[in-house]
Amino acid sequence: MSSNIRVQRICQLCNIEFTAKTTVTKYCGDSCAKKAYKKRKREENIKTSNQETEKTISIPFEILKNKEFLTIAEACTLLSVGRSTLWRKIKNEELKVLKVGRRVIIKRSDLDNFLKSN
Known about the structure:
By secondary structure, the chain is of the alpha+beta class. The chain contains four helices and five strands, in the order E-E-H-E-H-H-E-E-H.
């Protein structure tokens, strides 16, 4: 049982006019349909990858928000500033730090007070 319907369409991929035998045909041929499918799957994979990356990036922020003491690297990540900027604030005594041996630790409450004052 075949249809006698003939509809003029424009291919959604290559924009060439063609005669479609059904009302739902979107592409002029099998090659355009396959290319469109690959393009759609590629975009889905990119979207999924971007969502996973955002989730992976946001996890450290959640962990750092709950810590009471932060290292210089963690404070830089939390504030989204460079190490030199943070060290400049420490050197100018705008930000208080604690030294444990050779390690420099920033108290979370001191960091919050520094942010409130600026």
